[in-house]
């Protein structure tokens, strides 16, 4: 049975206690039917290129066999160049840093690479629990939608951001995240990535979700506008 909570901070969202669902969660809350958790502290770490490599995307597929062979290698090239850029700046080798920036610019002009990079940034913000980074990755529109495992869709930028804040409530960061069976498709200013996301929280076993992330290019930058994750039995 579900029990309504009387806490003012929860009541304003009409939250009710719910059972565990997906991603290793323990105590859940729902605004209406939406299953989320309350987090009282927020990490402030920013996305680092080295963190993106920990996601280890595998089996990246594009629109044809050529893309299948190049998608993952391009993404790894971007991550390697980002790391090399950090090193060059730290060593004050600004000539080398300028060359690396030019190489990164050329790679990022490729739409498939850009969508894969945006997808990697999404999972990195998820891995470290960085709400500010997550906020910057989503399109600030009322039409955006997020479906957490076992929950109904949440619509609108503000409600989606609130849902991530609650979902992360009792997590101890960083998480362990791996991506498998990554597929990417880009048509004009819209791109999507489908993948199996494997998530492990401290003291728990791996949980699997099949996820679809839809991105839209707005003013030259890719923003996520839909995230839909469904629980997989491992």
UniProtKB/TrEMBL annotation:
<feature type="domain" description="UVR">
    <location>
        <begin position="79"/>
        <end position="109"/>
    </location>
</feature>
<dbReference type="InterPro" id="IPR001943">
    <property type="entry name" value="UVR_dom"/>
</dbReference>
<dbReference type="Pfam" id="PF02151">
    <property type="entry name" value="UVR"/>
</dbReference>
<dbReference type="InterPro" id="IPR037401">
    <property type="entry name" value="SnoaL-like"/>
</dbReference>
<dbReference type="InterPro" id="IPR032710">
    <property type="entry name" value="NTF2-like_dom_sf"/>
</dbReference>
<protein>
    <recommendedName>
        <fullName>SnoaL-like domain-containing protein</fullName>
    </recommendedName>
</protein>
<feature type="domain" description="SnoaL-like">
    <location>
        <begin position="115"/>
        <end position="231"/>
    </location>
</feature>
<dbReference type="Pfam" id="PF13474">
    <property type="entry name" value="SnoaL_3"/>
</dbReference>
């Amino acid at each position: 049975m579900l029990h309504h909570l009387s806490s003012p901070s929860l009541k304003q969202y009409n939250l009710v206690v719910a059972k565990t669902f997906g991603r290793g969660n323990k105590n859940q809350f729902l605004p209406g039917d939406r299953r989320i958790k309350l987090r009282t502290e927020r990490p402030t770490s920013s996305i680092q290129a080295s963190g993106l490599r920990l996601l280890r995307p595998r089996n990246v597929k594009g629109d044809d066999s050529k893309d299948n062979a190049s998608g993952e290698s391009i993404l790894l090239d971007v991550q390697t160049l980002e790391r090399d850029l950090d090193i060059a700046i730290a060593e004050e080798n600004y000539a080398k840093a300028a060359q690396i920036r030019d190489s990164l610019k050329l790679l990022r002009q490729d739409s498939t690479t850009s969508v894969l990079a945006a997808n990697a940034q999404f999972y990195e913000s998820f891995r470290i629990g960085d709400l500010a980074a997550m906020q910057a990755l989503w399109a600030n529109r009322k039409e955006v939608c997020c479906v957490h495992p076992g929950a109904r869709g949440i619509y609108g930028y503000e409600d989606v951001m609130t849902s991530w804040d609650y979902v992360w409530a009792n997590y101890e960061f960083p998480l362990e995240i791996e991506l498998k069976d990554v597929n990417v498709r880009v048509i004009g200013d819209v791109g999507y990535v489908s993948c199996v996301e494997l998530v492990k929280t401290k003291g728990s076993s791996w949980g699997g979700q099949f996820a679809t992330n839809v991105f839209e290019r707005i003013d030259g930058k890719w923003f996520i506008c839909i995230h839909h994750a469904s629980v997989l039995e491992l």
